[in-house]
Amino acid sequence: MSLGETVRRIRKMKRIKLKYICGNEIDNGNYWRFEQGKSSISADTFYQIIQNLNVSMEEFSLYHNNFAPDKLSQWGKQMIKAFQVLDHEQLEMIAKLTLDEFNKTQQIKYQHLYYLSMIYLCSIKKEPFDPTWISQLKDYLMNCEQWGYYEVSLFNNSLFCLGDLDTILTLYKRMYKSYLRSKSIHKTPNEEIMLATNIIAMCLMQKSYSKAQEINNLIQSQEIEERSMFARTLLLWCDGLINKIVYKKDEGLEQINMTINIMETLKMDSSAKMFKRWKERLLGTNK
After folding, report:
1. Residue 188 pLDDT greater than 60, yes or no
2. Where residue 223 falls among pLDDT bands split at 50, 70, 90?
3. Which of 129, 151, 176 is the last residue in one of the domains?
4. In which domain, by residue range, is 260 found?
5. Distance CA 16, CA 285 (A)
6. CA distance 17 to 271
7. Which one, 15, 49, 121, 188, has least CB within 10 Å?
């Protein structure tokens, strides 16, 4: 399906009149030929059409691909699940799929997912892995000045293998500054807050209390909307850890238990189990 055909499909589905798509800036004849697949248009004109269709680029991509699931997202979820249940056969399959896709398209996102799946695979098989995989991921993140959801997710999924805590904190600060610049386009802050939650746990495990407090102060100062319930639950968890482990306050344990109770009440079973394991490990390490 051509881009013009997808535009026409969306326009028809939304029942938007042609005059509202073209407005005062797009020539009706040029638009009509584009919709029929008989001519091309500039990137600026295409962007204006997307705006007038009242869809995001992500939504347009879904329409254009007939609502087929995004390969990267699908394989990424499968990779994480396989790692959690120690399924090395699934990880091997994902590694092959992502490597084949990278060789076919040369899109770096598939190379990154290949590296991650191989690192996860070697980790559960307790085998050494190629240090080039980690250095490539680290270099990409270090050289990235504007972070989006992709970079935050990549950082979060590669956190445990990036090396020393100082490197991780340097990357987090780069991410945070970039996040502030693009805050308006982040509809839900779950990935960013989950990343901070993981790093705070790492800091506490290594007894780097001041660094854990610094990151907690950063995320607690953010304005998180009420609809972002998971992110708010994570904030409660992080505050509880700091209060219990750093300040030795009893209310910290209450906050930690409340977090787990919320997850259980909402039937977030896998999250509740994971946070119970974290509670046991963190409180046991910091007695």
Report:
1. no
2. confident
3. 129
4. 131-285
5. 60
6. 46
7. 15
